[in-house]
Amino acid sequence: MSHLIKIFPSNIEFSGEEDSSILDSALAAGIHLEHSCKNGDCGVCESTLLDGEAEDPLGRVYGRGDKVLTCNCKPKSSLQLHAIYYPELQGQVKKIVPCKVNSIELVSADVMKLTLRLPPTAKMDFLPGQYINLQYKGVTRSYSIANSNEADGIELHIRNVANGQMSSLIFSELQVNSLMRIEGPCGTFFIRESGRPIIFIAGGTGFAPVKAMVEHLVKKTSSREIYIYWGMPLAKDFYSALPQELDEKFEQIHFVPVVSGDDPTWGGRKGFVHHAVIEDFDSLEPFDIYACGSPVMIDASKKDFISKEMSVDNFYSDAFTASK
């Protein structure tokens, strides 16, 4: 059974099936509501129910005034929701295309840089910061695109997850010219147009979408002030020299690496990466902030930044959740 779902304040309407999540119904209709992990962990898709009833996977029913996760709640009636809708993504078509491995490079002990080449007729139109679903030997996993949309092909940064099905395949047997498939583009993590300075915060391979967005800003010769904060457990875990190179080349780009673990070889900033941001700025009110990493890091950043006068409307995030 289908129900009418209306989104405010944009006044967008679409039909939602009772056996599909609100988000899946919206995406099927070409309507891009804010989301990230799509499995109920990150909270990015949280919206306010203005009217009607929705049900979560545990059978809990939500009504007027309740907060719901559109990625896992299904409509039980016609709904009215206060949710963020992105016209920038209107017309963007998700598709599945074949690709071949162009190169494989081990850039650190547990991170592989994978570049994929697409058929000439299968160019993927994505916004820097978005992700794709990578399919190989019956396994599907989501990875952020690590290159700007001006570049050819797709670059991915893949961490070797203990007992991870996809990462085990990639680290043990993937070869140049191996055939894979990608589905995308996906997600609502992309640069919002404004003249405000930007703070990027990355944890681990959360650097991948940050790299894509910064490269895009550089290529379009943006004059926006850019601060890149990248956190790793140990100094040896930093797998790219690019942010330091950009810091040295461009006056408006600033790179701050932060190590959270006990590393006697490290003489730079230490602690949680978002704490470095708090230490460096008296107020975060003037900034657009983009955070990519674990749900714990993103949640802590958002809560602590609000205490530094950050507007939640200027905080954008993409949560990485490890899958076996």
UniProtKB/TrEMBL annotation:
Its cofactor is [2Fe-2S] cluster. Residues 3-87 form the 2Fe-2S ferredoxin-type domain. Residues 94-192 form the FAD-binding FR-type domain. InterPro entries: 2Fe-2S_ferredoxin-like_sf (IPR036010), 2Fe-2S_ferredoxin-type (IPR001041), 2Fe2S_fd_BS (IPR006058), Beta-grasp_dom_sf (IPR012675), Cbr1-like_FAD-bd_dom (IPR008333), FAD-bd_FR_type (IPR017927), Flavoprot_Pyr_Nucl_cyt_Rdtase (IPR001709), FNR_nucleotide-bd (IPR039261). It comes from the Bacteria. Pfam families: FAD_binding_6, Fer2, NAD_binding_1. Gene3D superfamilies: 3.10.20.30, Nucleotide-binding domain of ferredoxin-NADP reductase (FNR) module (3.40.50.80), Translation factors (2.40.30.10). This is CDP-6-deoxy-delta3 4-glucoseen reductase. It comes from Citrobacter freundii. The lineage of its organism: Bacteria, Pseudomonadati, Pseudomonadota, Gammaproteobacteria, Enterobacterales.
